Amino acid sequence: MRTTGKFLRFAIIMIFLGFIGFLTREGKFSPVWENVQGLFSGKKEHKLTFADYEFKPVIRKDIYQKVLATGTVTLKTGAEVKIGARISGRLEKLMVKIGDIVRAGDTIAKIEHEDLLARVAQYRADLKAEEARLTKIREEGPLEINKLKAELEELNAQISLAQKMLSRNQALRQKGIVSESVVDEADERLLVLNAKINLAEEEIKLEEVRLKNDIRLQEAKIEKALANILEEETQLSYATVTAPIDGVVAFVSTQEGETVVASMSAPTFVTLIDLKKLEVTAFVDETDIGKIKDRQKARFTVDAFPKKFFQAEIREIHPKAVIKDNVVNYEVMLEISKKNISLLRPEMTANIVITTGVHEDVLTIPRGAVKRSGKKSFAVMKMEVALSEKLIELGWRDGDAQEVVSGLNDGDQVGILFKPKKKKRGRRRR
Predict the structure, then answer these.
(1) Tell me: the pLDDT tens digits for 235-261?
(2) Tens digits of per-residue pLDDT, 176-229?
(3) What is the pLDDT of residue 36?
(4) What phi and psi, each to the nearest 5 degrees, are found at residue 218?
(5) Are 357 and 291 in contact (CB under 8 A)?
(6) Distance between CA 408 and CA 390 in Å, rounded?
(7) Three-class SS string for 203-257?
(8) Inter-CA distances, 378 with 350, 369, 371, 384, 387, Å
(9) Cβ contacts of 133-136, under 8 Å, gap ≥ 24
(10) Sign (positive/negative) of CA torsion 359, 365, 368, 370?
């Protein structure tokens, strides 16, 4: 009998524990336990009714997966330009101040340049002298050649006469009228004239070559003079400092009257920044970096405009981590949409939301309609005559919207428990 009694008590205990386990799995243990406590404590348990809930329908909408990050508005490469001097001298005129908007080509400053003007004038005078020499060579050279050619023609005329004299003397010698020496003299005269003609022809060729060489040499001297002028004019142009880009003057480092010395490190007059060339450097936690891809959409706010969203897009993801205070982050560069970019300034703190995925047209309920018990989730449903808790499977969460993977259908009504109103404490009368 004792054995039977012990077995019966053991069986009752096991059934009771199994019942408690079933209630726990179904999420109903807490209400039952509260009822039991109410019975023993003597308090009357308030049973929730329709009036305790605000009911909203299950709807379909797109749910976006998002990554939150912080970052900074920064300048792109090339958006900041330091404008300096390429020549030495006293800063004669500074034409801008901090905050001025300038366009590419606008004059920023002028450096004293009287010495450069004098050198340019000197080289221009040298150029005119060289050009005059070239003109003289081109005019006088052909005259000298023509003179030699005239002398050659004269020799040609003399040689014709000498040939006739030689032929006549040879005929007279045969008749015995003239001596042999007269014939020899005529022959010698002819040979000398032929030699002079050859010499004259060579002199003409030499003079023609000399003229060409003199012209080429003088043209080279003119090119050198032009190069000297170009160099000095280039140096002169450096005396007028112009803006290479459109931008805003962010910093002025040299004032009028100061002397600048151009060396290996060029002195800086002003710093220009192009506020249209901005980007956002976002710092994404290592737990979220795997969700980030190129071309994903993002938006961000800055403290100056907390209610205004700026649109952006992921351009690149830097592979090297940035570790600060033992927190591992990765730099993600965002390309900012041109709309409203003029409102932004470098170094503004950005609060960034990156959209990493989307579930389209899924069932959703408000977050306040979700009840949890352990690892299970429930929703209070509005039935015809009573409330009912239904087990649901959850998906992504987007703000106040919670995706429901299973457990609910279109048109179901889920309840959101009203928050109890706090009683106002009255002042105690004295």
Answers:
(1) 888 888 888 888 899 888 888 888 777
(2) 776 777 766 777 777 877 888 888 888 888 888 888 898 899 889 999 989 998
(3) 52
(4) -70, -35
(5) yes
(6) 8
(7) HHHHHHHHHHHHHHHHHHHHHHHHHHHHHHHHHHHCCEEECCCCEEEEEECCCCC
(8) 37, 8, 5, 19, 12
(9) 133/218, 133/221, 134/215, 134/218, 134/219, 134/222
(10) negative
Residue whose entry in the numeric block shows the structure tokens 């409203």:
340
Record the tokens describing residue 112, joined without a space. 């004293």
Residue with tokens 């002195």: 267
Per residue in 174-212, is it b (16+ CB within 10 Å) or e — as a string? eeeebeeebbeebeebbeebeebbeebeebbeebeeebe
User: Quick one: average pLDDT of 300-305?
Assistant: 94
Q: Which of 88-102, 116-130, 144-158 has the lowest mean pLDDT?
A: 144-158
CA distance 141 to 128: 20
Whether pTM exceeds 0.85: no
Which helix (H) or strand (E) segment holds residue 164: the answer is helix 114-175
Crossing angle for the helix pair 180-237 and 114-175, nearest 10 degrees?
Answer: 170
- Give Dmax over CA atoms of the chain in angstroms: 193
Return the bridge partners of 298, or none.
Answer: 312, 354
